[in-house]
From TrEMBL:
Source taxon at top rank: Eukaryota
Protein name: arsenate reductase (glutathione/glutaredoxin)
Reactions catalysed: [glutaredoxin]-dithiol + arsenate + glutathione + H(+) = glutathionyl-S-S-[glutaredoxin] + arsenite + H2O
Residues of the Rhodanese domain: 18-119
The organism of origin for this protein: Trapa incisa
Cross-referenced PROSITE patterns: RHODANESE_3 (PS50206)
This enzyme's EC code(s): 1.20.4.1
InterPro entries: Rhodanese-like_dom (IPR001763), Rhodanese-like_dom_sf (IPR036873)
Length: 130
């Protein structure tokens, strides 16, 4: 079964991110370290994304909704989302992932709309309540 990847707006994500079954995956590269990030987001840089997919799958065990983003969500975010979708198809793994989403306008759009940004240096970020 082919999975389709849909887009989600910042406003939708703001509400959704309170749910325990959602994981936000930041695939920006070095920008994450100086631009801040969405509170509670995981970091899997796009340049090493393919090597870390199985690690990612362990980390998101129990989540059913994955939201990808990069700076603008035009190239890296959708690319990594598609890579994950084809990985799941290849391994025929039923990981319980129902939805693979991409955040419209990416981190830059999120920040420009005045939504919460975390600037911690924790790996992973433990901040969910901003
Ligand atoms: Zn943080």
């Amino acid at each position: 079964m082919a999975r389709s990847i849909s887009y989600i707006t910042g406003a939708q994500l703001l509400t959704l991110r309170r749910r325990p079954n959602i994981a936000i995956i930041d695939v920006r590269d070095e920008e994450r370290s100086y631009d801040g990030h969405i509170p509670g987001s995981l970091h899997y840089a796009s340049d090493s994304f393919s090597d870390k997919i199985s690690d990612l799958m362990q980390t998101v065990k129990g989540k059913d909704t994955l939201v990808f983003h990069c700076a603008l969500s035009q190239v890296r975010g959708p690319t990594c989302a598609r890579r994950l979708a084809s990985y799941l198809k290849e391994v025929k793994e039923d990981a319980g992932i129902m939805d693979i989403l991409v955040l419209e306008r990416g981190f830059n759009g999120w920040e420009a709309s005045g939504r919460p940004v975390c600037r911690c240096t924790d790996k992973p970020c433990k901040q969910h309540d901003l």
